[in-house]
Amino acid sequence: MDVLDSQGLNLATLEPYDAKPSHSLVGSLAPKSFHSLAAFDLAAGPEVISIQAVLTGETAIRTDRIAASTATTTSLNSGDSITGFVNSLGDHDWLRVQLTAGSRYLFKLNRLSGPLDPLLSLRNSAGSLISENNDANGGRNSEIIYTASSSETYYLDAGANRNNSTGQYQLLMSQLVIDQYAANTSTTGVITDGGSVSSTIDSNGDHDWFRIALTAGRSYTFNLNQVVGSQGLADPLLALRDSSGVLLTSNDDANGSLNSQINFTATSTGTYYLDAGAYADSGTGQYQLLAAEAAAPTPGYSTVTGYGEASVKRALEAMLNTTLPSIADLGGIFWGLDRLGAPEAWSAGYTGSGITVAVVDTGVDYTHSDLDGNIWINSGEIAGNGIDDDGNGYIDDVRGWNFDANSNNVMDDNSHGTHVAGTIAGENNGVGITGVAYNARIMAVKVLSASGSGTLTAVANGIRYAADNGARVINLSLGGGGSAELLAAVSYATSRGAVVVMAAGNEAATSPSFPAAYAQSYGLAVGAIDSAGNLASFSNRAGSTPLDYITAAGVSVYSSVPGGGYASYSGTSMATPHIAGAMALLQQANIQNNKGLSVAALETLITSSASNMITATSLTASNRGTTGSSSTLRTRSQTLEDAEPNAGNQEVDHRWDREATSHHPGAGFTSERPTVEQLRTVFKAATPASVGRRADGSNLAAGTRSTAIPEAMVSMITGLSSSHRFGVPMPDPLTGLNHDLDSTLQPWFLARV
Predict the structure, then answer these.
(1) N or C end: fewer C-beta atoms under 10 angstroms in the chain?
(2) Do 582 and 683 sit in the same domain of this protein?
């Protein structure tokens, strides 16, 4: 008997094993081959016969070992697998399995070799067909998922589709975790006020609903949190539904994390449903769901503006138990100083003298004429000798340290840090601008690169450096991801006597991003307002969890930029140095008057004297922190929780502020502290009617004032492209670079307003 392949080539000549060639044949084929064979009896002519599959490398015909009936003796257990053969056309292998009623199982039949197109069937104890599958999940393998209706013996039937192929297979069986909770109102899931539930999102698209009873008029907080570890749900998504299952609200990534939180006041008493799932229905893992009635609102605290607009005047009055005389507004570019009450503090002798403020940022232009006299100098270091003279671990850190490049070069190569520094401690020298604490010292700590990005480690190290080298205030006009390392640094600085002041962020989010979110425990979070006192549209709000959140001027703030110039920027980055300057004044007063107040007490002074607290306690004292001495406080009938910013008065939106103007020194003062008229004169003189550039690089006509920018910035600003900050695409006016914010921090300024 000659055996030919599909091309008619002779593979082997086989001899009959018994008297009938149509039965089994014994012979040898090439090893490591598997063939669909045709056979010819050259004496009698062609004859259709069944030739069993040849096992790789073997020379004997394979005998069917597994019966195709309930008489099979082969079994398969959950979690196990077995390898077998479909030996001939029409061959089937039945395997006995024991299933438990209510349990869910996964069965897979995969091809290992040969032309086999697997077909998998599931049969009951009598051998009757229950289910079958061919070509599961877009492939040729087969898969059945089945929930057992009774506890008994079932049979898995492994064969070939249409009984027309042979080959080697692998059959696998596993028990699946049953989805405990339905994704509809028939769910058995229940959670109570003050309770928690832990469960699992079992597959992509899985949702678990939990019934909860709420009372009309009461406020509740619901949290869906990741479970720490490799089995945790990576990105939870929480939704709240009414008694009919209709969506009311949902939340993803609350409070600067991937966890979800919903704050809700029930409109009616009855049943609601919490819907736990994964963001974009992608991901599986364990989660924890918590529900609790919200605590009574903190008096004077708003979820939008926190404790409200800060006033260093009122804070000093509270510290010194006195009343400071009101000073007429400076006006013009100094509106932020007016709203903060800085002139009243100056009149009492508090200008930041003896206080060092660290600007942890992109560096500082220490040669700027409005800053050079106020730059912190490390007296324990000898410049240029290559020796760590003071033993602080940093060689020649005369003006600070660069943690981005690990050097002593703290020169600003971006502009952000210099702008921040000017707001804090711009000199009272009759030129350009005057800072809130114009006699304080600026410690330059560079942690961000020229592109405005940096690592969490660099920022944490910069904070520790500032605290260890005597900074009493640390300004963090930056934002990004949180980390244990960063939190530990903020905590450490606080323990060393430094007030850490942090920008809330520019996403218009319902709560601050990190590191400002740490103000629940340490430091101050700062939101931005415009010249009318309205919260800026871009500013992150305070959030439902009380934290030390206050507001200050952050829209079109005029300050110093590298190269001796000045510009107006917007962002919570610009509001933060106003508060950093205010805290420098309070630190000076604390030391000068031997008050011995802790960092926490100083922070309480500035928050408890902010505008919302004044409103809440119905105080009517002189109020520099609203719109001037002639304005009135907001009435108590305007509930703080409902006080939304006045969108109609916003000066900026989520595009870069194009009102960045270029000014140059032009007039001088002769007195130590300028008069109001002198300040106004300088403001006018420092706004030249000269040809400038727009943000797109084009020329402006002579006489234009409001949209010119420094020539030094033109080449950096032209060619805007898209970058990524906190997952929101927007223009990066300085670099056009993309930044990975999972591991970096960014300056809170131009690019997000």
Answers:
(1) N
(2) no
